[in-house]
Amino acid sequence: MQLLSANHFRLIIEVFCIADSILLFSQEGEKTDTIAFENYLYGFNSSMDLNQDGYNDLMIYESLNMHGQLHPRVFLSNKAGRLRYRPDLSIFNLCYDTITKHVVSFYVGGAYSEHSKNTYTWENDSLRLIRGASLKIVSPEEGSILTFYTGKDKKPYKTFDKNAEELWDTAVFEQIPNIDCKTSLE
């Protein structure tokens, strides 16, 4: 796989997925990371600047889970065009939202599972959760529960058990961002 980064340096990247469980990552012929994969390699995104430093980062995605959610392996780019693996950023559907100007993540589960939306800001070299929300659909009879939380421990600060699904549509951010995920080199 070849990646042309935002600073126009050409960087040769090799990605091998062995036995559908290990990802070998190398740059310019030098092996840099061996990463355990829970599933098989699905796709990638090399056009997103997740930390807004002016350099495109690389997201390599495992296969979609049963709810169609993307689980990335994130590599942040630096000024020299080198990519650094960041296991702490392997958060479902992580992306930079150009509308809110924040890093966001979301998870949309099945009918009776928990859904979540989170928004983050960069603090030094790490993501800090600004706020988030989770929607748990209990049952058609009992309804659902919407909880807003903040901080790395996701401390709840407001809970709704009436009209939770209607409030969910605009909780944290309105539209679920579209994540560009390529499955082949074109």
Task: Quickly count the domains.
Answer: 2
What coarse outline follows from CA principal-axis ratios? globular
Counted by DSSP, the helix tally is 1
CA radius of gyration: 18 Å
- Output the structural class: mainly beta
**Main sheet specs:** 6 strands, antiparallel
The first-to-last residue Cα distance is 10 Å
Question: What do you see in this structure?
Answer:
It is built from one helix and 14 strands, in the order ββββββββββββββα. The protein folds into two domains: 1-90, no CATH class; 92-186, no CATH class. It has one helix spanning 164-168, and strands spanning 2-4, 10-18, 22-27, 30-36, 41-48, 57-62, 72-77, 83-86, 95-97, 102-107, 114-123, 126-139, 143-150, 155-160. The strands form three sheets. A six-stranded antiparallel β-sheet has the order 9-10-11-12-13-14. With 186 residues, the chain is mainly beta. The termini are close together.
Can you give me a brief rundown of this structure?
The protein is mostly beta strands. The chain is 3% helix and 52% strand.
Spell out the key features of this protein:
186 residues, mainly beta, four-stranded antiparallel beta sheet, 1 helix, 14 strands, XAC2610_dom
Write the layout of secondary structure elements.
Elements: E1 2-4, E2 10-18, E3 22-27, E4 30-36, E5 41-48, E6 57-62, E7 72-77, E8 83-86, E9 95-97, E10 102-107, E11 114-123, E12 126-139, E13 143-150, E14 155-160, H1 164-168
Antiparallel strand pairs: 1-2, 2-3, 3-4, 5-6, 6-7, 7-8, 9-10, 10-11, 11-12, 12-13, 13-14
